[in-house]
Design brief:
The longest helix has 18 residues. The chain contains 10 helices and 12 strands. The radius of gyration is 17 Å and the shape is globular. The protein is of the alpha/beta class.
Length: 278
């Protein structure tokens, strides 16, 4: 399987190096929406969709005033997943499957751009989006992003295989065995990672299980003050989030030669993969 690393939404939050780890305090930090486009024998598969065309056309209605103020997204139609898929010579219908780490508005915003795709997600995540509990969950989900009625495929945690010590790992219906859903709850109720095996190695897209590359650095685990604060503010289950983040660090430490881990919003991780030889 060939994997393309896409930025489906640049964001420019204030905070400089307190958020991004380098640069001036007076300049905005840079964050991305790191999505994967995977070529398989069953068609194209997207891991997360980033910010979609609806947000570019109607940002206030699609994303909400709070998200716009906090993240200051660039809102470039050329960065949307659909436009990047088309630039590679494909159509929306060629994307047969979408695997979501979770349903936050900056991860599921492109769903309407691929109305015929089957959408794979943890069942607890879909339940949270359908019946949000409290202001925190109500503000993070945008039901309009799935108002077209996707073909959902949901997965629970009652059973599943083990993968490098992670439990309840699930194969994805209709997709190769080299694509797995890894439960990583905490940021949201049903947050998951997505593991892809290609070229003899595994790539784990950890979504928002962590935000800064240093949080899984085997040699020196660290984050930035701004991102530590932000993750705490938006977490659904702090105990689960910290536990899973520590497990990801342990995975990088013990199996860095077998598994490469990326998060959804770190621009350095994205550039590293985009610059790597194919």
């Amino acid at each position: 399987m060939r994997v393309h690393h896409l930025n489906c939404g640049t964001m420019r939050p204030f905070g400089g190096r307190l958020v991004g780890g380098d640069g001036s305090l007076l300049r905005p930090a840079t964050m991305v929406c790191h999505c994967l486009l995977i070529e398989t024998e069953e068609g194209l598969v997207l891991v997360d969709t980033g910010i979609g065309l609806d947000a570019v056309a109607q940002p206030r209605a699609s994303l909400g005033r709070g998200f716009l103020l906090a993240t200051r997204p660039v809102l470039d139609a050329g960065e949307t997943a659909i436009r990047q898929v088309e630039a590679l010579g494909h159509t929306a219908d060629d994307v047969r499957h979408i695997v979501l780490t979770h349903l936050d508005l900056d991860h599921a915003g492109g769903l309407p751009d691929f109305p015929r795709a089957r959408v794979h997600v943890h069942h607890a995540e879909l339940a949270a989006a359908a019946s949000p509990a409290g202001l925190g969950e109500r503000s993070r989900y945008r039901p309009g992003q799935w108002a077209h009625g996707p073909d959902w495929a949901t997965y629970g945690t009652a059973e599943g295989e083990r993968w490098f010590g992670f439990e309840a790992v699930r194969d994805l219906a209709g997709l190769p065995d080299d694509l797995l859903l890894i439960p990583l709850a905490g940021h949201t109720r049903g947050h998951s990672g997505v593991a892809v095996r290609t070229g003899g190695r595994w790539l784990l897209h950890a979504g928002d299980a962590y935000f800064f590359r240093g949080e899984v650095d085997p040699a020196h685990r660290h984050s930035t003050p701004g991102l530590r604060f932000f993750q705490t503010v938006v977490q659904q289950d702090g105990t689960a989030r910290h536990r899973n983040q520590a497990r990801l660090h342990e995975l990088a430490l013990a199996h860095g030669d077998e598994v490469d881990i990326v998060s959804a919003h770190d621009p350095v991780e994205l550039r590293r993969h985009q610059d790597a030889p194919v």
